[in-house]
Amino acid sequence: MKAILFLTSALLIFNVPSFSQDIKMDGFTVKDYASLEPKVNGNNIYRSDINHYRIKIPKSWSINKPNSIGVEFNAVDPLGMATMNVHVTHFDNPPKKDAHDFPVSEALNGFKQIMPITILLESKKTYVNNLKCLHVKVKSNIKSLDDDYYIITRNYVFLRGNRMISLTYQVIEEFDTEYSTIFEDSVLSFVFEDHLYKIK
Questions:
Q1: pLDDT by 10s per residue, the chain, length 200
Q2: Whose CA is closest to 82, among 118, 65, 47, 58?
Q3: pTM for the whole thing?
Q4: End-to-end Cα spacing for the chain
Q5: Residue 191 belongs to what H/E stretch?
Q6: Which of 20, 27, 36, 189 has the fewest C-beta atoms lying within 10 Å of its C-beta?
């Protein structure tokens, strides 16, 4: 599990398109969910029948079709200032490590390969609903012909069986404080639901 696994989350920023084809690499698979039509229930909860988890989408946000390979859905706030994604990687064999074993340096290097001007703001090995989780928060400079601005990315990585699920929240830097509680509430709603399915 090298930096490439974190790259799959970092790539979401650039909306790497889906091509209706899974990507198989040495030891793991990144699936294409382009055919999904994600929906939330009346409580704004998205439930994955494919990867067996549920998560609450922030109130008034829109949930959209996957925008990148490996992404199960994309959600955007009404003002277009923030976004969230859930990215899933499937391992050929369950890893012997857990989320707390991931080196933060690999996560940071993964982001830097995509966005060279990236600095680490925070990292911690924590728990969410009794699940081990690695949380990495970075600040990155995005430059194009017309734009030059900073975004804040919060990445939460979980391991469960042969799946690595990465929650990625991004916001323009000026709105980071305003959106931090919204992001935290969504993360705290994340729960695996394997007990509702027959796991092979």
A1: 333 333 334 444 334 555 567 888 778 888 888 888 999 999 999 999 999 999 999 999 999 988 788 999 999 999 989 999 999 999 888 888 889 998 888 888 888 888 889 999 999 999 999 999 999 999 999 887 777 889 999 999 999 888 999 999 999 999 999 999 999 999 999 999 977 666 44
A2: 58
A3: 0.85
A4: 23
A5: strand 191-192
A6: 20
